[in-house]
Amino acid sequence: MARDLPSLNALRAFEAAARLESVSQAAGELHVTHGAVSRQIRQLEDELGIALFSKAGRGISLTPAGRQLRDACREAFDGLRDTCSALRQDQQQAPFLLACPGSLLARWFIPRLDRLNAELPELNLHLSASEGELDPRRPGVSATLLYAEPPWPADMQVYPLRQERIGPVLSPRYSGAARLLDQPTGVLLGEALLHTRSRPGAWRDWAERQGLDAAQLRTGQGFEHLYYLLEAALSGLGVAIAPQLLVADDIAAGRLLAPWGFVETRHQLGLWVPERQPQGPAQQLADWLGKALQQADA
């Protein structure tokens, strides 16, 4: 059964005029014209078939019906305000669950987590890490930080943050480091290269962008996830292929070397947010991440 109500805009205009006992003050509070409030009240009176105000000198006063409707509106609007306020507070206090690859979390995100929490304390950030395939549609996940190749799916708001760059890295402790350093990129075609099963095409992509014959690449020890691959490189086990972002701190500290530089891939690091999620907190996080990435490049 239909629950017919007068226009909510008309009820809002009436409630403000009744509470303030002034059409002009109601217009100021609602940021509309005096005439707009008067028209809304006349519309409401016509719909109800009863007068809600009467003239009182140069002002207005409520009729008995007007007082009855005023009290009902006050109770209804107060209840709505309280409920909306509680919902906003609940949303602000609810954790923002960010999913991201464990390697990205360990090598880039965690070293900057204190600063993020200090600068965005209202975000109430919680983290979920995985080295497997991340599902940005997983229930409970507020956003997912991941590398992917455009185009983006229609049911996701994606905030692009950075083009991926990959390149070979090795530890100064690697037994073959002295032999490889200062050599052109082609020297790696004869090397047993460390690789990861989670990104099997990384070496091929790098070789093609270097103008090398990817078919001549030799693969050595393989690892299930990127995090383990980078640990192997740090331990001096060989030459690995890695995203620049994840090894920048190690290169700056001298733990890893990148003598052949990095090349862009088709992948982009982005913050993926389901359309069902409020975009305000995600936009805040995306803005923060963008600034932090710029600082990392400086």
UniProtKB/TrEMBL annotation:
Keyword Transcription regulation on entry: yes
PROSITE patterns in the cross-refs: HTH_LYSR (PS50931)
Any one biological process term the GO annotation gives: positive regulation of biosynthetic process
Pfam family, one: HTH_1
InterPro entries linked: LysR-type_TF_proteobact-type, LysR_HTH_N, LysR_subst-bd, WH-like_DNA-bd_sf, WH_DNA-bd_sf
Highest rank taxon of the organism: Bacteria
Occurrences of domain HTH lysR-type (ranges): 6-63
Keywords from the UniProt entry: Amino-acid biosynthesis, Aromatic amino acid biosynthesis, DNA-binding, Repressor, Transcription, Transcription regulation, Tryptophan biosynthesis
Keyword Iron-sulfur: no
Gene Ontology molecular function, alphabetical: DNA-binding transcription factor activity; sequence-specific DNA binding
Assigned protein family: Belongs to the LysR transcriptional regulatory family.
Cross-referenced PANTHER family: HTH-TYPE TRANSCRIPTIONAL REGULATOR, HTH-TYPE TRANSCRIPTIONAL REGULATOR TRPI
Protein's name according to its UniProt entry: HTH-type transcriptional regulator TrpI
Lineage of producing organism: Bacteria, Pseudomonadati, Pseudomonadota, Gammaproteobacteria, Pseudomonadales
